[in-house]
Amino acid sequence: MSALRVAVLKGGRSLERQVSLVSGGRVEDALERLGHEPVGIDAGHDLVERLTAARPDVVFIALHGRDGEDGTVQELLEALGLPYTGPPPAACAISRDKALAKHVMRDAGIATPDFLVFDETTFKDFGAAALLPALGDRLAFPLVVKPAHGGSALGVRFAGTPEELAPALLAAFSYDDKVVLERHVTGRELAISVLAGEPLPVVEAVPQGEDFYDFEARYEIGRTVFHCPAGLEPDAAREAQAVAVRVVELLGLRGCARVDLLLDADGVPWVLEANAIPGLTETSLLPQAAEAAGVGFDELVARVLGLALDE
Fold first, then answer.
1. What is the CATH number of the domain that holds 21?
2. Which of 293, 247, 275 has the alpha carbon at shortest distance from 98?
3. pLDDT at residue 50, rounded to an integer
4. Which of 40, 146, 171, 258 supports an S-S bond with 275, CB 3.0-4.6 Å?
């Protein structure tokens, strides 16, 4: 591949800004080593102006969370006629909305934990708070409470009892105006990255000294042990990978994406969510999976870039 001028979108306005800055910085370093000319852009009010001035050949999206993963920036790049890494706008919008993605997966027969969705309107205007005592009968405690549009485990809370539910909802609502209540599935936490339609080795995340895999456990080195490839029976690994590929195809994700799931004691893979713009930090799961497949970080960046130009 000849040398390219590559705009790297990072940072932005979301709560995942710091993670995005790290991902973008690592991508820029890799692009330099590959002989390209990276132009780092912290996405803000002058984004169009900076993209116009940069005149890139292609845009590498390392922008996590709001704007980067919900289709906003993708729509803008489509309007500018610039090729970019990652999925198109609609696929981003669907996968970013955990509730919508779970509806799509459930309708397609993919196992995803039972769930209910509430927004602030249902509590403020329709009295949904009166339903809280009955949720244990509907979904069965324990529950996982999460922002519908969140990422990086931000705002995710565990409610083991009815008394813990209201505080968990308040915490999740502080991150988003729509919240997903999900039946907790006990199992092994797996992540499967899919690159150009092919699954990479399964990663298993094992938090150290924590009952729940939260933001700190995910991004502080040493708080979580990652096993890649995960110590699964070959058939179980293949089944989990097949489910991940099906989810990626169903949601219309392209380039590279990551599917998070739980493998229960009966060997059933329960899909939790799909990530359109996986992290590229030192503790992120996509680079670990690629490394286990013999694909170093620079090669991973090169392949993702090449996929954008092949679209």
1. 3.40.50.20
2. 275
3. 96
4. 258
